[in-house]
Amino acid sequence: MIHRINRRAFLAAAGTTGVALPFLEGLPEKSAFAQTGGNKPVFGFFISAANGVAQQYGQEPERFWPTQLGALTKSGMEAFKNDRATGILSDYAEHLLIIRGVKLPLAGPTGCGHAQGLAQCLTAKPPTGNGNGATSTGPSVDTVIANAVNSQGTSPLTLYSGAKGGFIDDRLSFSDAGKVRAGEGNPYNVYNRMVGLIDSGTGQPSPTANLLLKRRKSVNDLIHDQIQRLQSNPKLSKADKERLQLHFDSIRDIEDTMAEMGGEMTGCSGSLLDMDALESVNDGNAFKQNDNFEKVIRLHGELVGLTFACNLNRVAVMQVGDGTDGTQYVIDGQKRERFHHISHRINSDGNSGTPIAGAAELHAKIDRIRITTVKEILDKWAQYSTPDGPLLDNGFLYWTTHVAVGPSHSMSNMPLIIAGKAGGAFKTGQYIDGKNAEIGQVLTGVLRAYGIQSNFNANGPLAGMLNG
Predict the structure, then answer these.
(1) 171 phi and psi angles, rounded to 5 deg
(2) What is the mean pLDDT of residues 429-457?
(3) How far is 157 from 387, CA to CA, in rounded Å?
(4) What angle do CA 37, 194, 211 make, to 5 degrees?
(5) Residue 159's beta-bridge partner residues?
(6) CA distances (Å), 336 to each of 290, 291, 327, 332, 365, in order?
(7) Helices marked H in 153-292 — which ranges?
(8) Which of 99, 230, 264, 338 is deepest in the core (most CB within 10 A)?
(9) Which of 425, 438, 467, 389 lies closest to 105, judged by CA?
(10) Which of 326, 344, 336, 348 is nearest to 164 (CA)?
């Protein structure tokens, strides 16, 4: 006799709320993916980084954008990958929509451009206030999406990478005008929430999570016996088993990465985790350290991919660095000045200071580091699938910065990279010119990809970004 696989009973037995979802969603009779009225779900991850990019500015040469408008191909992008940061994404040319010539509503700052840029880059509305107190005058796009497509009451997955400096911290995701969401900076907490190991009352790791630490176990060890029974079930196809194995391999990869960042590396694939390392990660200190900055971004990106594959949330947003991002990158083997200073080209957070030699070139190299991290997230996403096909076909990563150019804090010609097809909605494999359109037209196009008819701009979606 073949027993029906009961998803609810399995999850209850597992003692978690999400750990096996990528596999279990693939069972048609239990699929949350099927509960969409026939529409395939779309998943979007919005990232806003700091300090602009090294695009053409005054006497500084172009080091960011592709060399010409039009079709993007792998070979064409490889031709400029050593000179332009976007070329690093050549492997994903057919999934890319790169848009230049787009501005924020307040295209020139009237106070602190960093706070004003953050408060409008996902809201498409002019901010209110000056200095580091500038805030939004409306909800951000992630809120609009979550309200329309998430399960009732499920907010966007809101993340933060880097130390919060206190001058301009969270300023990207808004539930409404002036109502900012705090981003979770510790990937360990994100992970525990995802697999149901955060106590809803305290917001801290649950007794089960602490027990895993004390026993130096992986989350996978909680449900080892259940997984073995699933693997032996004759109802499962080869593809089902491969998806299940990928999910649990991904969990172990995440745990390995957190252990490595916390201190001593201890492999956890079939063995024990380093309890001290995980406790350090849980405390959050390791994830605030300068040298781990890009690792945190990658790990958050991995967790977002797994969240999407689980269909636990359909929209995520991440602020990278505080408003002025003082990360000190290691470039050519040397720890450099604070990134904010490099973006100003002087050793100062203001408008006067000692010039930094080769600052424009250093900024270009930081861009290359940042876009390499984007590529590594896409590399991981390329391994994920949903019952509707590959995650990169059904989802997208949206990367921008909250000012366009560091020295001037200009908010015209904003960097904008979309990677992923959003179920075929985006016209990918293209580098297009927005012709000085406001960012609201791009965000309206994103809403259309989700099937949402709301508008962020009266002119509708940006021409050339959507199919059909």
Answers:
(1) -160, 30
(2) 97
(3) 22
(4) 145
(5) 184, 318
(6) 12, 12, 9, 9, 11
(7) 187-194, 207-215, 224-231, 238-262, 275-283
(8) 99
(9) 438
(10) 326
State the Cα–Cα distance between residues 280 and 262, nearest whole angstrom: 5
* Fold that domain 41-185+284-449 belongs to in CATH: Alkaline Phosphatase, subunit A (3.40.720)
Residues 56-115: tens digit of each pLDDT: 999 999 999 999 999 999 999 999 999 999 999 999 999 999 999 999 998 788 878 999
User: How far is Cα of residue 78 from the mean position of the Cα atoms in its chain?
Assistant: 24
Which residue pairs, CB below 8 angstroms and at least 24 apart, start in 189-195?
189/282, 189/284, 190/157, 190/159, 190/300, 190/303, 191/254, 191/255, 191/258, 191/303, 194/18, 194/303, 194/306, 194/307, 194/310, 194/312, 195/16, 195/17, 195/18, 195/19, 195/219, 195/251
Residue 426 CB partners (closer than 8 Å, separation 6+): 97, 396, 418, 420, 445, 449, 465, 466, 467
Tens-digit pLDDT profile for residues 106-144: 878 887 899 999 999 999 999 999 889 999 999 999 999
Strand 430-438 relative to strand 96-103, pairing: parallel
Q: Any residues with CB less than 8 A from the CB of 200 and at least 6 apart, and which?
A: none
CA distances from 81 to 54, 298, 399 (A): 14, 21, 18
Paired with 417 in beta bridges are 98, 399
Parallel, antiparallel, or unpaired for β 174-176 and 179-180? antiparallel
Contact 450, 423 (CB under 8 A): no
Q: Cα separation of 223 and 227, whole Å? A: 6
Q: How far apart are the first and last CA of the chain?
A: 49
Work out the angle between the directed axes of helices 187-194 and 238-262 (0-180°, nearest 10). Answer: 150
Give CA separation, 195 vs 13, 25, 36, 172, 305, in Å. 13, 15, 23, 26, 14
